[in-house]
Amino acid sequence: EYSCEYGSLKFYALCGVGGVLSCGLTHTAVVPLDLVKCRMQVDPQKYKSIFNGFSVTVKEDGFRGLAKGWAPTFIGYSMQGLCKFGFYEVFKILYGNLLGEENAYLWRTSLYLAASASAEFFADIALAPMEAAKVRIQTQPGYANTLRQAVPKMFGEEGIWAFYKGVAPLWMR
Fold it and tell me: Number of structural domains, the chain?
């Protein structure tokens, strides 16, 4: 009757795959908009508005320039979606079992919020390295054009910390 048993490994895997598809694909689809937004934040004199930002980017880098940062965006947000959707279900069941069936029902809104916050904690840890690389690629001209260029350069300059400096702001968000 069902594709899998609730709470089974297959169930968690399917939730994770749903997260990969929904977060990874949607965030990658809006990379051009995100690129211009990030550049507007870093250099508001050069990128005066969304439309101006698109125009300047296309003039300087061509249409391919609008895709800068697509790989870390896809990987990072896929990992975030995997953790967010998968761990949400894990924590929902875990916390529900700790509370007991009746209390889990009575406190379901708080249970769902706690499960969501717990999942997001780990999801942001998974996202942070790729988000850091994406921002460098998109906002520091000449730093790196691809993920394969950015990661070793970041690690060589700052070590592992380069990839996790942004995790606290992600948690605050």
Answer: 1
Q: Which CATH number covers residue 140?
A: 1.50.40.10
Asked if 92 contacts 42 with a C-beta cutoff of 8 angstroms, the reply is: no
Q: Is residue 96 part of a domain?
A: no
What pTM, to 2 d.p., does this model score?
A: 0.90
Q: Which domain holds residue 149?
A: 9-84+116-172
Residue 33 CA: distances (Å) to CA of 111, 134, 138, 143: 35, 13, 11, 20
Per-residue pLDDT of the chain (173 residues; tens, 9 = 90+): 678 999 999 999 999 999 999 999 999 999 999 999 999 999 999 999 999 999 999 999 999 999 999 999 999 999 999 999 999 999 999 999 999 999 999 999 999 999 999 999 999 999 999 999 999 999 999 999 999 999 999 999 999 999 999 999 999 98
Q: Which of 164, 156, 168, 144 is nearest to 71 (CA)?
A: 144
Q: Other C-beta atoms within 10 Å of 39: how many?
A: 19
